[in-house]
Design goal:
Blueprint: E1 6-7, H1 15-26, E2 40-52, E3 59-69, E4 83-92, E5 103-106, E6 116-119, H2 124-135, E7 139-140, E8 143-147, E9 159-161, E10 168-173, E11 177-182, E12 184-185, H3 191-201, E13 212-216, E14 227-234, E15 240-241, H4 242-252, H5 257-277, E16 281-283, H6 285-305, H7 313-328, E17 333-335, E18 347-349, E19 355-357, H8 368-371, H9 378-394, H10 400-418, H11 426-447, H12 453-463
Parallel strand pairs: 1-7
Antiparallel strand pairs: 2-3, 3-4, 4-6, 4-12, 5-6, 7-8, 8-13, 9-10, 10-11, 11-14, 13-14, 15-18, 16-17, 18-19
Helix pairs in contact: 3-5, 4-9, 5-10, 6-7, 6-11, 7-11, 9-10, 9-11, 11-12
Amino acid sequence: MSEAVTRTVTSPPGLLASLAPLLRDWLPRQRWFAGKGRPVTGFSLVAATELFPADARLGLYHILMRAHQQLVPVPGVPEEPGDCYQLLIGVREALPPRLAPALIGHVSEGPLAGRTVYEALHDARPAELLLEALRTRARIGGLRFERDPGQEIRPGLVPRLMTVEQSNSSVVYGDTFVLKLLRRVVPGINPDLELPLALARQGCPRVPPPTAWLVADPDPAESGEPHVLGVLQPFLQGATDGWNLALRELAKGEDFTAEARALGRATAEVHTALARALPTVTLGHGRLRAMAAGMSERLAAAVRAVPALRPYATGLGSAYTALDDLAAEGRTWTAQRVHGDLHLGQCLRSPAGDWSLIDFEGEPARPLAERRMPQPAVRDVAAMLRSFDYAARSADPPRPEWAEHCRAAYCSGYAEAAGADPRTDPVMLRAYETDKAVYEVLYEARHRPQWLPVPLAAVRRLAGPDQT
């Protein structure tokens, strides 16, 4: 085993102040920036670590910083704390043409005056440094590069930046590993590391086991908990994500029910392993009533924002009333850790036909404590059922019957592995699917109006008299 490397570093004063004018323009243009549409009013430094000295030909800084924003500036009202982002900033005298898309800008003052800064993940040498630090279990300043002692990382793997992610960034190393770097980070145990580690201990083959991970030491000014910054996992070479596979089969007019059934089995296997690995809880009337109330509040807010929902509000709300009524009668549900953001794009099918689930971060916009709460497993099922609807209605012409067949096959496959069919829990399933469809209506109305007919079709179905 390689010996751990420890290196103490210091960063020059005034670093963030010198970068701020460039970051103010560059950061909102990144796909993973969560605060689009709100002006950035300033930055504050959480931590800066010099990985390469800036006086060398190539400098490299790891930066954790808060971006402060305010929807409508109000005199006398303090700004919100701001989201914390992870940046890898490369420093060069000038950028070679191959790195032109990574340009952040030219620094005019401060410790990097006269230098060019850029998004370092586009550059092979910084990406190689990250893997080597993980391989050697390095500790550089407040950064800890940790590794599963039972897994080895071969040196010299060639990196390439993936271009398809939106909320995070990933680098593939030689088709052997993939390093997912979280962009918006919060202190605490991130489920994208916690759950795959728990599943690895259970020997669950449906989730790639973490090989190594990157952690930042706690910020004394905050919660005293470390930030999980990135996770290295085996790269599933030749795998196709479920969304693209479904669209391909739809375009060819091919049946997808066998794949949907296999995916249902894989989901159930993951749920079963999570229930063994981590505590489960029983949801009684109080918790269930609060859950139904939260769903009702989200529906009311969506109806105010999207007039097209108004004709269906009463029918949709009956899904939550039915859940509350069952709870009042004494019905309880078991809750456990779940994926939390399951859809076809979070599933990979290997060339051999095996399905894997990835990206256990949950919905990044939700607080970390909420993402780590036990939930009824049917929440993941409802989310996947909505994903089949999206795929079917992406076809030209739309294929709603395709979605119906896939939904049924997925639930049947789930039942084969779990011993219980999600359709035998229609009240909870409908409540979660309705809540998801309402969220989708609000999201599409704000960001992709051309997609609004997709969730509205589900809304009509879920609010209708048959309520299926």
